[in-house]
Structures are given as structure tokens and as C-alpha cells.
Amino acid sequence: MQVMGWDMVEIVNDRKTLRVTPFDRENTPDAPEYDWIKTYVEYELPELKAQYQASFNVGELNTLKEELRNLHANLVNGGKAKEVVFDSTENQLNLVFTQSSFGHGVLLTITLRPENPAESVVISDSLVIDESYFPALFAGLEEIINWPG
């Protein structure tokens, strides 16, 4: 995985790329955990490219970051890691990180819903990432969470 430029998470595995880039922030003055970060989500395969806008609240991104930190610590220490499930509030991006049965990696299952979930095409895929991807993932999530808008 790479964090490219500023304010972006990019996971590249083989010929698959998942990219999340913020472009706006809707502030909730008295409750920053409920600020909404508007992003562009892109998923590329050799035969398909999906691009759409999705919004995430800061609270759900912080929870994802902390759960991934626990997963990463268990991977590094050789412990049994709890599966991390991220079902975004608006149900436009769902990620499941499941510890691999071998090595220090995880299976990342991705579900994208580019439009209103009731009428959306659903794109599902999976890829394997190892523990070395996590530091860049943490940095990218932190940048998105703290993106000023």
C-alpha cells in the first residue's frame, strides 16, 4: 500500500487499486466526531474502473483506525487477530479485514456501492495485504480524519 500525495489512502495489490481521497468537510461545531468527510472513492481493475463520491463521519473513521491498530499489533506479535468490519454509515463502502491463516497478512474484502444502495450496482472483490501495509494505512486515515476541508 502507498499513501500518495497528501490526504489520500491508496491500497495497491497486484493489478487492483483502491483509492480514497477527501475533497470537503462538513463541520459539526459542537461534536467534531460527527463531522462528515466527503471523499472520492476509486477502485480499479484491468477490466473495470469505478469512481464515485462517498461520505464518512470522523467517528466511524476513528473507530476503524483503532480496530486496525489492534489487528496490526496482533499480526506483528503473532497473536490471534479479531476480524475488523467497517460498514460505512451511508453503506457506500464496506471493508472486512480477516486474518490470513498463514503469515502476517489479512484478506481484505471490499464492497462498493457507487449509488443509492437501493438501486446501486454492487462491486465486491478481495485482495491480500501483509502487515507492512498498515503504517501507510494509519497515516492515510489520520490525514483524512484531520483533513481541514
Radius of gyration: 15 Å
Q: For the terminal residues, how far apart are their CA atoms?
A: 24 Å
Percentage of residues in DSSP E strands: 35-45%
Largest sheet: 4 strands, antiparallel
Give the helix tally.
2
What are the secondary-structure elements, in order, as H or E? EEEEHEEEEH
Indicate the percent of residues in helices.
10-25%
What oligomeric state do the depicted chains represent? single chain
Number of strands: 8
Which stretches are poorly predicted, pLDDT < 50 over at least 5 residues? 1-7
* Strand neighbour order, sheet with most strands: 1-2-3-4
SS-based class: alpha+beta
Mean pLDDT: 88
Spatial shape: globular
List the helices and strands and how they pair.
Layout: E1 9-13, E2 16-26, E3 36-45, E4 48-57, H1 58-77, E5 84-87, E6 93-99, E7 105-112, E8 123-130, H2 134-145
Antiparallel strand pairs: 1-2, 2-3, 3-4, 5-6, 6-7, 7-8
Helix pairs in contact: 1-2
Features:
single chain; about 150 residues; alpha+beta; four-stranded antiparallel sheet; 2 helices; 8 strands; globular
Can you describe this structure?
Strands 1-2-3-4 form a four-stranded antiparallel beta sheet. A four-stranded antiparallel beta sheet has the order 5-6-7-8, covered by helices on one side. 21% of the residues lie in helices and 42% in strands. The chain is of the alpha+beta class and 149 residues long. The chain is built from two helices and eight strands, in the order ββββαββββα. Mean pLDDT is 88; it is low at 1-7. β3 (36-45) and β4 form a beta hairpin.
